[in-house]
Amino acid sequence: MAKDRSEPDLDRELADLPPELRWREWMRRIEAVLFASASPVPRQDLARVVGQGVSVDLLVEDLVADLEGRAFEIAQVSGGWMFRTRAAYAPAIRVAADVEDQLLDLSEFDVAVLAAIAYHQPITRDGLKDIFGKEISRDLIGRLHARDLIGTGPRSPRRGAPYTFVTTEQFLVAFDLETLADLPEREQLEDAGLDGGS
């Protein structure tokens, strides 16, 4: 029988501890939850392991300060927080571990198509064809889908109800975005010569 998640065996309030130790324990609980999760953990999930009315944001701020100078950090991504290695240590990880399969390894055109999907979602392959002036291959869409950077959106209301494509939470994580609102403004991309022809 599955354990009821709404009634965990956890003393959230920690009333028997002095305030400073209570705060430190709540920080460690948040650290443990983030460490155990492979995806961003939203505020409401972290609030389940601390006392009622306690500021998760302040606990995370203190934890971030506590981790200063470490090889990893807490990043706010996709509406939650997660641990990640600091960018300065990426070369060491590549040398020590076989992480080539984990790298995005996208061509410039793949990134342009991904950007078009991000800015115009939900969008069909025909919509992408209108932007780029050429057919976008199913293989390219498949590669982006296999890396979980895009997913299937709602069916288009057009004749034949073609599939549309949208970005995923993994897209936000891969590009270090909290939300799609964090994408660069299209005018900035055009100024940089990266407008994708739209």
UniProtKB/TrEMBL annotation:
The protein's name: Segregation and condensation protein B
UniProt keyword annotations, A-Z: Cell cycle, Cell division, Chromosome partition, Cytoplasm
InterPro entries from the UniProt entry: ScpB_csome_segregation, WH-like_DNA-bd_sf, WH_DNA-bd_sf
Pfam families: SMC_ScpB
Organism field: Primorskyibacter flagellatus
GO process terms (BP): cell division; chromosome separation
SUPFAM superfamilies noted in UniProt: Winged helix' DNA-binding domain
Biological classification of the source: Bacteria, Pseudomonadati, Pseudomonadota, Alphaproteobacteria, Rhodobacterales
